[in-house]
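Let us work through a complete example step by step.
Step 1: write down the sequence.
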Amino acid sequence: MKKILMVILLLVGIALAGGGYYMFYLKPEQDAAAREAANQEAITLPRPAEPAAPTPPPMPEKTDYYVSPEKLGVREHPDRSAFIESILYRGDKVYVLEKRDGWGRISPYYVYNEGEEEVAEWIPMDQLLEVPPTITKAERIKTISSYIEGSDDFKQYFDVFIATTDDLIKEGICLPPDFEELKGWVKSVKYSEDVYFVYCGGLKQANKIYLNVSTGKIFYK
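Step 2: predict the structure and record it as tokens.
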């Protein structure tokens, strides 16, 4: 009986020793190894990629411009020696269809006669502004004066000629080339010396505009 009791105590001691070994030595090592493995996994796992910033849409190309100089020649080719087929004036708005070597094309291509080369209307880009030019009163008078400085009795009736011409252009009744056709206002021989005329939009009687410089009023015949 005594031997059996000793065996039981021995087994209990072995069990307690095994449990202590597990609790105080083996388990802490297992826990430490598990923590290290978890940390290593957290380090090695790739981070989710951040979404790329959206690419901004390209800015639309500028096409609307305004003429800067008082007069600008429109040429058949993008060359300063090319033939000038028309004139633009300061503040005129243009729509640029194509840009090439510092020139802007403002019309479609066209051919005058079959078999001839294509031509178009070209103007230098360095003579254009992206916003309408600011024109002072003095600059406006100077510009209008350049259209009609060949008028009969120009100096005598300067103020009324300038004011009337400016109004007719702003209202769209006349264009600068209309006044340049006759170099300005022409004295009428049908009326008194106070009446002058100009043609706007053509050279027919219906296009003839009269100006009474005494009253500043225009009339048609």
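Step 3: interpret the result. The chain has a mean pLDDT of 83.
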